[in-house]
Amino acid sequence: HRDLHSFPTRRSSDLEEFGAQTVVIDCSGGYGGDAASRCIDAGLTVRRIMFNETEVMTMEERRRFHDRKAQLYYLLGEQINRNPEYFLPADPTLLRQACAVRVKPDAAGRVQAESKDEYAKRNHGESPDRFEAGALANFGATQTQERKAAIGGERLQIELPKQSARRWGMG
What we know:
By secondary structure, the protein is mainly alpha-helical. It contains eight helices and four strands, in the order H-E-H-E-H-H-H-E-E-H-H-H.
């Protein structure tokens, strides 16, 4: 029901406006593959990830997180809690999902995100799609900043640009 043909064109201007360098797309279950291909064809830099991946995670990440999804959920929650300047778009669905999503320890004590089925049972059949999009965007920003810090010795500071706050009516 979404128009994937116009997605790269519409979103590339957003990327330029906010200084984003990479589009991060979840390709779990095969649903993101077409969007990723269209973005690449439009000349955008794309990082494909899978929420259930573990083999490409570092040893430290594997010790802390059950899978990539748990890592992304945790990192966004940590960013919101740690940084009062971090803004989420003024989207009631996104904000509701951000408050409702749960993480828990797995049998090994690592952070594990609840499944979409568990979330849906508690939330009238709704899927946490907007929260996942926010987690993907935050991960892309975090990875970009970490690479800059490693290369140029910049202090790691992750902050959504102020213009995004104004754009969403929050600044």
